[in-house]
TrEMBL record:
<dbReference type="InterPro" id="IPR012347">
    <property type="entry name" value="Ferritin-like"/>
</dbReference>
<dbReference type="InterPro" id="IPR009078">
    <property type="entry name" value="Ferritin-like_SF"/>
</dbReference>
<dbReference type="InterPro" id="IPR007814">
    <property type="entry name" value="PaaA_PaaC"/>
</dbReference>
<dbReference type="InterPro" id="IPR011881">
    <property type="entry name" value="PaaA"/>
</dbReference>
<keyword id="KW-0560">Oxidoreductase</keyword>
<dbReference type="GO" id="GO:0097266">
    <property type="term" value="F:phenylacetyl-CoA 1,2-epoxidase activity"/>
</dbReference>
<dbReference type="Pfam" id="PF05138">
    <property type="entry name" value="PaaA_PaaC"/>
</dbReference>
<dbReference type="InterPro" id="IPR052703">
    <property type="entry name" value="Aromatic_CoA_ox/epox"/>
</dbReference>
<protein>
    <submittedName>
        <fullName>1,2-phenylacetyl-CoA epoxidase subunit A</fullName>
        <ecNumber>1.14.13.149</ecNumber>
    </submittedName>
</protein>
Length: 311
């Protein structure tokens, strides 16, 4: 009965085991995973837009090939994640409908514009860097399909982060105008990257339960702090400044202190009022409509194939 099932579930989670799709799980655990995995998948595919904006204007064939590969990886990450969500008895069509209707979220970070080529570098360095910091612990998430999807995604994100770092390094050590462009991109992407980790712990409605279920392994503020500590020496070797006058090493705490985040900006972006929310969702809906023929053709092919094999 449910009492035994709950006890079995709790025992697996506390022993660092994995919950698999066939296992019993509490309804709220399933709902939390669907929410987080869907939001993550939506972020991957909406996250293709800001960088895709620069594919046709990449400064060389080599840069263009690298950027196309990165954006294609993001589409792939979306597919792994929608696949992981579907093991929880939801359908990706239904999740996409909810995204398009504004009833499911995607990461706040993708509502900012990519104004210059250096933004491609800043996204790789900071946005992929933040994504890895958040996602490496998710490789140990209690839900098996999500944890396994994260392993491969993290490997690919590491490549993405390196390409951004290398791109910014080239600009930072180029002409004064290139250096200024790199600095401007870092100035604009730094604070939104810190917001990717979610609200402060005392305002994070889901953290406590998600940590008890071992979906989340660290709190939002812990991961944000880890990210700041990783970025400071990297900024130094890039020769770029982080736009925070309050950023300094705290000997006692053994980490960096950093300035106040503008949480009202984060709330505005979550409410749909960021600089690009409308544009991102419009483009997503249009892409979905334009792709209808592909879904129809795939479904027709699958139907023919199964009719043939069932003969
Ligand atoms: N944006 O209680 P919490 C990538 C919402 S990486 C928008 O703390 P939770 C790679 C939250 O949903 C980006 N909404 O929530 C890439 C909740 O909403 P609700 C994607 C946010 O879930 C790079 C409310 O605020 N990564 O795409 C954000 O425990 C370059 C309360 O928050 C992931 O999704 C936000 N930043 O912790 C691709 C990682 N933060 O239910 C292309 C997996 C919070 O009240 C190019 N997700 N909210 O309506 C997670 O680890 C967690 O879901 C957190 C939030 C940490 C994001």
């Amino acid at each position: 009965d449910t009492v035994d099932q709950q006890a079995d579930f709790d025992a697996v989670v506390s022993a660092e085991g994995r919950i698999e799709p066939r296992d019993w799980m509490p309804d709220a655990y399933r709902a939390t995973l669907v929410r987080q995995i869907a939001q993550h998948a939506h972020s991957e595919i909406i996250g293709m837009q800001p960088e895709a904006n620069w594919i046709t204007r990449a400064p060389s064939l080599r840069r263009k090939a690298i950027l196309m590969a990165k954006v294609q990886d993001e589409a792939g990450h979306g597919l792994y994640l929608y696949g992981a969500a579907e093991t929880l008895d939801v359908d990706r069509g239904e999740l996409l409908d909810k995204l398009h209707a504004g009833r499911q979220r995607y990461s706040s970070i993708f509502n900012y514009p990519t104004l210059t080529w250096a933004d491609v570098g800043a996204i790789g360095w900071l946005v992929d860097g933040a994504a890895i910091t958040n996602q490496v612990p998710l490789c140990r998430c209690s839900y098996g399909p999500y944890a396994r999807a994260m392993v491969r995604i993290c490997k690919e994100e590491s490549f993405h982060q390196r390409q951004g770092y290398e791109l910014l390094h080239a600009l930072s050590h180029g002409t004064p105008a290139q250096h200024a462009m790199a600095q401007d991109a870092v100035d604009r992407w730094w604070w939104p990257s810190l917001m990717m980790f979610g609200p402060p712990d005392d305002e994070s409605s889901h953290s406590e339960q998600s940590m008890a279920w071992r979906i989340k392994r660290h709190s939002n503020d812990e991961l944000r702090q880890r990210f700041v500590d990783i970025c400071v020496p990297q900024a130094e070797s890039l020769g770029l400044a982080l736009p925070d006058p309050d950023l300094r090493w705290n000997e006692e705490r053994g980490t960096h202190d950093f300035g106040e985040i503008d949480w009202s900006e984060f709330q505005q972006v979550l409410r749909g009022n960021g600089p690009c929310n409308e544009q991102r969702l419009d483009q997503r809906r249009t892409a979905h409509e334009n792709g209808a023929w592909v879904r129809e053709a795939a479904a027709a092919h699958a139907a023919k194939h199964s009719a043939r094999t069932s003969d």
